[in-house]
Amino acid sequence: MNNLIKISPSILSADFSKLGSEVISLEKAGADYIHIDVMDGHFVPNLTIGPEVIKKLRPLTKKTFDVHLMISPVDNFIKDFANAGADIITFHPEATKNTSKTIDLIKKEKKQVGLSLKPNSKIDIVEKYLDQIDLVLIMSVEPGFGGQKFMPEVLEKTKVLKEIIDAKNLNVEIEIDGGINFENCALAKKAGVNILVSGSTIFKENKGDLKKNIEILRKN
To answer: Does residue 75 carry a catalytic annotation?
Structure first.
């Protein structure tokens, strides 16, 4: 299973004064995706970057831009983020009045579609859309800020989701984001996760040795 594990470093923990070189360094260090958190100060209590920043970063790497939209109403911004260079656009069902319509908007832009579950969100709100999407992002912290502590209780939900995906023989990836470190990454993989998002661990452990930290997360 380990060879299927993808690492998607979250640039929320990067040095924003040199974001471009941080992204280039992540590519050199062997990241599979670049995870970009977009927050609006409304759907979640924090503000981050918009499409213009993504547009500036896009020419610097060929890596998949894994863009997590924590904004509401989300439909108004799909086209902007697609045009800016997002490859995967993930949104929260709670951020739209019509989940199917939002999925269609993303597909119309020829992007991969992700649905995200907050720690207290039930699987039911994504289950009926599993055959229309590419990815489910499980939040293992309350969305909003980096550096929070991992919530192990979400792993039960992850296991159930994996069973449903396998039973339906669907090609849907499971991603997890929030407090992922060298210890709990193994528990996440065991629960069925194959994409690990990590910020603080990748940028801060082992004196910021990105390559080493990515490899440990992949292998543990």
So the answer is: no
